[in-house]
Amino acid sequence: MGYILNNQQGQVNWVDVLRPYGVVKDILLGEPIHYQGEKSSVIGLVITGTAKASVYSKHGQETWVGTFAKGDFFGYAELLTDTPIDFEIIADTNLQVLMVPAENFINLLSANRELASYVNNGMAVRLKRLTTHLVEAVTLSSPGRICAEILRLSKPVGVDPAKLIVRPNPVFIDLALRLNTTRETVSRTVNALQKKGVLTRKSGALLIEKPDTLRAKIK
Asked: What is the CATH number of the domain that holds 112?
C-alpha cells in the first residue's frame, strides 16, 4: 500500500514535513529494520524502495503479513498501543527510510490533524488488506487466492484499458509466501491460465488478457 508523496492535488509531502524531526537512513536489501517482538522507539516513513513484514514461528516458519512501500509508515500502530512489533520488517530492496523518534511523532500527531488523519487512513487500509487476506485464506482455494492476488497487483493498460498488467513480473516464490501456498502451485496455476489465453508473459510483465475470466476463477 503506497501513497503519493508529491505535493500534487492537495497531497502533503510528509517527507518534507517530518524531515526536521528525524533522520534519513539508507538500508540495504535483506537488512532487518525491526525484529519481531521488539518495541518501537522510532516511526519509519519509506521514502524509496520496499520492505516486507513477516511473522516467524518458533520453528522458523515464515508467514508473510504485508509490504511497506513508498509513502508508508511503520511502527506507529505498536507505538499508539504501547505493544511490541509482532512481525519482522526486512528490506525487500535497497531503500531509504525517514526515522522519526517516537516522542517527536506523538507530539506531531497531537499538533497536526492532517498527519493524524493520514496515519489513521493508513491503518484502516492495512487492516482492510489483512482482513481480506485472512478471509481469502479460509474461503478460497489456493488457485483462487493466486488469481485474486494477481488482480490486486495489476493496473490498467494505457493503450488498452480492457486489459490489465502486472509489472514487474511477479516472482512465484514471493507469491507463494504471501499466499501461504507453494511455488509449484503458483507455477501450475499461472501456466494453466497462460494455456487458456487468460495471461500472457511479456518482457518484465504479466499481461492479463481476460480480466473477467480471471475474476471468475476466484473461488
From this structure: 2.60.120.10
Using 50, 70 and 90 to split pLDDT, how confident is the model at 216? very high
Q: Which of 119, 138, 157 is the last residue of a domain?
A: 138
Residues contacting residue 41 through CB under 8 Å, at least 6 positions apart: 101, 102
Q: Which residue has the higher pLDDT, 5 or 26?
A: 26
Say yes or no: 126 and 178 in one domain. Answer: no
Query: pLDDT tens digits for 87-138?
Result: 899 999 999 999 999 899 989 988 999 998 988 888 888 888 888 888 998 9
Strand 88-91 relative to strand 32-34, pairing = antiparallel
User: % helix / strand / coil in the chain, to the nearest 5?
Assistant: 40, 25, 30
Place of cell 485464506: 137
Whether residue 153 sits in one domain with residue 65: no
CA–CA separation, 148 and 126 (whole Å) = 17
Q: Would residue 6 count as lying in a domain?
A: no
CB-CB contact of 65 with 87 (8 Å): yes
